[in-house]
Amino acid sequence: MKTIHLKNGEILTIREALVEDAQAIIEFIKAIGDESDNLTFSGSEFITTIAEEEEILKDHADKENQIFVIAFIDGEIVGQLNARASHKPRLKHACEFGISTRKDHWSKGIATEVLTYLIEWAQSNSVIRKINLRANVSNKKAIALYERMGFEHEGLHKRDFYLHGEFQDAVSMGLLVD
């Protein structure tokens, strides 16, 4: 667990998610799905059950190359990060993550802190040697954050998103952690 004092005076707590967090995580994910076009789903499209979310959390806890992180302010989940890697020996060193923050908490540095938590975890992890991500090219703030954190552009995925009747490209980025 990590506690950070944000510039606005709020206290951010970051920790790995527990099975008991499943319901709160589902509520968070449904809410953020309706707050941003930068995700691959809307709130109504997210249909994971509590039992399924509990299995996801157990799976992450059981594998050394996966982590599910949640961030709180005043007991409310305001951010999350889910990083997964393959079980295949040739691919298990590279995780890919998704990250999100509640819209009313954007620009407070939460994503930076959660991403720092992931990078520090990866650097201390004996398996993970690379962190990958995909982001919609229109998500300029996120891409700028990833660049500041040392991620490099690795490719472009044409027509990766379909949003508001239009195809949009996504950028692939990666960070070597060793």
3D architecture notes:
This protein has helices at 22-33, 50-62, 110-124, 140-148, and strands at residues 2-5, 11-16, 67-73, 76-85, 94-101, 130-136, 152-163, 166-176. The protein is an alpha+beta fold. The protein has one domain: Gcn5-related N-acetyltransferase (GNAT) (Aminopeptidase). Strands 1-2-3-4-5-6-8-7 form an eight-stranded mixed sheet, sandwiched between helices. It starts with a strand and ends with a strand.
Question: What labels describe this entry?
Answer:
178 residues; alpha+beta; Aminopeptidase; 8-stranded mixed sheet; 4 helices; 28% helix
Topology readout:
Layout: E1 2-5, E2 11-16, H1 22-33, H2 50-62, E3 67-73, E4 76-85, E5 94-101, H3 110-124, E6 130-136, H4 140-148, E7 152-163, E8 166-176
Parallel strand pairs: 5-6
Antiparallel strand pairs: 1-2, 2-3, 3-4, 4-5, 6-8, 7-8
The main sheet orders its strands as: 1-2-3-4-5-6-8-7
Number of helices: 4
Classify the fold: give the CATH topology. Aminopeptidase
- The CATH architecture classification is 3-Layer(aba) Sandwich
Mean pLDDT: 95
What value does the Rg take, in angstroms? Answer: 16 Å
Could you tell me the number of beta strands? 8
Low-confidence stretches: none
Number of domains: 1
Write down the CATH class.
Answer: Alpha Beta
Query: What overall form do the CA principal axes indicate?
Result: globular
For the record, give the distance between the C-alpha atoms at the N and C termini, rounded to a whole number. Answer: 23 Å
* Main structural class: alpha+beta
Into which percent range does the helicity of residues fall?
A: 25-40%
So, the CATH homologous superfamily?
Gcn5-related N-acetyltransferase (GNAT)
